[in-house]
């Protein structure tokens, strides 16, 4: 059929907010038409490739766990302008394993715990910003100020470098944000992309590269004399990568002048990985914490339980920051807080995966197989997380789902919960995502009340219209008061 899936999509799209995420649309299609474990969405000419949309955890594991299918080229089109061509996002096979082996240890729980006192400083600044906003009563977009916080956090974790994004303009952050605005958005259903896009990608890409090149070279030259003095368990990702470079180029580094930096090829490789960690680690976490505040504001009983846990474990508000700095592992003793974050990520999974079809898929070993060769194969975690047979009351916010037994609301079916995906390409920054979310809630949830302000925001942005749509699920605009 010439129009492919457009008639069904257009009919469903009318029921969505205009800025709805594509995974929300495909979830509504799945529910409305009872489309089963997977289906094909053909949106030509808006996207040049038909897409296999997977809505079942067993089928999803066929492309992520049983066999890790390669990333589809669309991933490079969407993210390549921000990360660069050597990014771990696009690496396959041994190259992917090599990059992961260098950097993954920088995201382990044991290493991250050593960084908590520094991360407390970043969240303290965040709290001060919230205090100023509370005093003025100003309406603000939570995801933006949260993104500045998570940008500072990812800078510390990966580069041992503070962007100070919360308090002052930063050349890298400014260039990154501008580049993000120009990135290719294949899911907008707009087949005509701005022809200036490539120019601005190169322009802002050079600015980001120049900033990170200086950070890497400065770190390399300053680290030569102290290389042996630093405990490997507390080394940030940048130092682990530089150690790998030194070990592979020992003859060269022994003879080079100590003020010389690493060679351009290695620096280019490092820049692409550093940008990748920024892309993966700041915007997703900012969205997650924004949705958490939103859901807690809509469920005061859950917020009360969260605050009660913080009272019992962390002690009085005025002493809790010092308690966390002294004993970072106390953040692991907050089971309800952890459950709140997990339930938020169930209802609002931040990321998905797009793989290249290389073989057949089937919903069951005894079911027919269907070819997927050269198609986009995407796992719709949004739909999986909202299936009533996997998660009873799927659209309800029930943190108790994720409490330890016997206090849990349900047992989580195998492979059904996948906000960080599964398999060898699962997000190795998930420990950081969970830790920083617990830390942020521990330092803010008792201090502030947040109120969704979507109607006011839409009135400001679009004017008062009878037919306006409140974007209540797809961005977090807040007003707030001091608790």
Strand content bin: 5-15%
What is the CA-CA span between the terminal residues?
58 Å
Structural class assignment: alpha+beta
Specify the overall morphology: globular
- Widest sheet, order of strands: 1-2-7-4
The percentage helix is 40-55%
**How many whole angstroms does the radius of gyration measure?**
23 Å
Low-confidence stretches: 251-258, 466-483
| Mean pLDDT figure | 86
Largest sheet: 4 strands, mixed
DSSP E strands, number: 9
Number of helices: 20
Order of helices and strands: HHEEHHHHHEHHHHHHHHHHEEEEHHEHE
Describe it for me?
By secondary structure, the protein is an alpha+beta fold. The protein is globular, with a radius of gyration of 23 Å. 52% of the residues lie in helices and 7% in strands. It has helices at 6-13, 22-33, 57-64, 73-83, 93-103, 109-113, 116-136, 142-159, 171-181, 197-223, 237-248, 250-255, 264-281, 283-298, 300-314, 317-326, 335-347, 381-385, 430-444, 454-462; strands spanning 38-41, 51-54, 140-141, 353-356, 360-361, 370-371, 376-379, 448-452, 477-482. A four-stranded mixed β-sheet has the order 1-2-7-4. A three-stranded antiparallel β-sheet has the order 3-9-8.
């Amino acid at each position: 059929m010439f129009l492919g899936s457009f008639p069904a999509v257009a009919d469903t799209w009318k029921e969505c907010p205009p800025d709805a995420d594509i995974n929300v649309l495909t979830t509504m299609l799945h529910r409305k038409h009872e489309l089963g474990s997977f289906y094909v969405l053909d949106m030509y000419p808006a996207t040049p490739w038909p897409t296999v949309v997977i809505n079942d955890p067993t089928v999803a594991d066929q492309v992520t766990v049983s066999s890790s299918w390669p990333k589809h080229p669309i991933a490079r089109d969407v993210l390549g302008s921000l990360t660069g061509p050597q990014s771990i996002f696009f690496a396959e096979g041994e190259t992917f394993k090599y990059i992961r082996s260098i950097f993954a240890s920088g995201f382990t729980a044991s290493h991250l715990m050593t960084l908590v006192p520094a991360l407390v400083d970043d969240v303290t600044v965040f709290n001060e910003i919230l205090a100023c906003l509370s005093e003025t009563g100003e309406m603000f977009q939570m995801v933006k100020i949260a993104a500045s916080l998570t940008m500072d956090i990812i800078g510390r974790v990966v580069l041992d470098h503070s962007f100070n994004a919360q308090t002052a303009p930063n050349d890298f952050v400014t260039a990154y944000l501008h580049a993000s605005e120009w990135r290719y958005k294949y899911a907008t259903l707009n087949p005509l992309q701005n022809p200036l896009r490539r120019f601005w990608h190169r322009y802002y890409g050079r600015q980001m590269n120049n900033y990170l090149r200086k950070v890497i070279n400065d770190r390399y030259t300053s680290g030569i004399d102290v290389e042996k003095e630093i405990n490997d368990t507390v080394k940030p990702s940048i130092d682990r990568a530089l150690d790998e470079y030194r070990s592979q180029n020992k003859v060269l580094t022994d003879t080079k002048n100590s003020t010389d930096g690493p060679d351009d090829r290695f620096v280019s490789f490092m820049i692409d990985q550093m940008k990748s960690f920024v892309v993966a680690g700041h915007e997703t976490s900012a969205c997650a914490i924004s949705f958490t505040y939103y859901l807690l504001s809509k469920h005061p009983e859950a917020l009360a339980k969260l605050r009660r846990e913080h009272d019992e474990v962390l002690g009085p508000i005025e002493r809790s920051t010092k308690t966390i700095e002294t004993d970072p592992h106390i953040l692991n003793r907050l089971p309800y807080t952890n459950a709140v974050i997990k339930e938020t990520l169930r209802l609002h999974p931040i990321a998905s995966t797009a793989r290249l079809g290389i073989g057949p898929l089937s919903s069951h070993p005894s079911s027919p197989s269907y070819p997927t060769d050269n198609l986009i194969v995407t796992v719709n975690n949004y739909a999986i997380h909202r299936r009533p047979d996997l998660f009873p009351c799927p659209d309800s916010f029930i943190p108790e789902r994720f409490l330890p037994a016997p206090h849990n609301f349900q047992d989580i079916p195998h492979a059904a919960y996948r906000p960080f995906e599964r398999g060898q390409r699962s997000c190795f920054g998930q420990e950081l995502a969970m830790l920083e979310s617990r830390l942020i809630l521990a330092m803010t949830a008792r201090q502030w009340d947040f109120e969704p302000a979507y109607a006011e925001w839409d009135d400001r942005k679009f004017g008062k219209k009878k037919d306006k749509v409140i974007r209540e699920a797809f961005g977090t605009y807040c007003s707030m008061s001091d608790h």
